[in-house]
Design a protein that fits this description.
single chain, alpha+beta, flat
Amino acid sequence: MTENLNKIWKNAVPWGTYFRQLSKDLELGIAALEPMNDLISGSAPQTAFDETLLSVNRSLRSMNLKISARNSAQQTLHEHLVTGDLEAIGREHISGGSFELALVPSSFWLGVDQVTEADDIHDGYRRFDWLRVIAAQASASTSTESEIPSAAGESKSLETQTRATAGRPSQRDMIFAAIEHQLSQNPNWWVAVAKAERRRSYYARIKQEYRIDPQRADGFSEKTIEKYETLFRKQTKR
């Protein structure tokens, strides 16, 4: 098992690399959705002041895009770790000053308010560093190296995923909106409605609002719904 974990860690994507690539892809996606108009009042800059103003606007937009993309990357990576769509592997700090390589359980991320580019994270009880990102299925099948994604392959998959989903709400946003709607209709939602019925209600709401079928689309499994319910209650205290 230790040998398999070493192999997974070696071939996984370094945490900082994954985070920066995700931020870059999200920045490109946001920029494509919000194209900048380089013209002022419908015409090209005519004066030095116009040129200066345009330069300042470009700089501000670039800075805002990077901030927005970074914030989105923090949220997106955290969501994927909570739902189990992605997993992380790293060095866990054990009592007595010892360490061991371990897969980070998805439940760990529920106790983490925010992830950043730093690869050293703790939830108040457990601490992991030297973190790397892997696809969830990679840890389940470790019989050959070819089943473990390389950094290049992971980046390509990430870029494709970002472009495919840019411009529409994330699974988290759709599920959170469905939960919010049900709570507005029934304040006793959590205790009055059984888990299976709550899930069916979310599916119906999402299908009505976003014109997609959650029972056929990826990212809306029973496990994912349960984890987003937990995340919603943790973040909103409701």
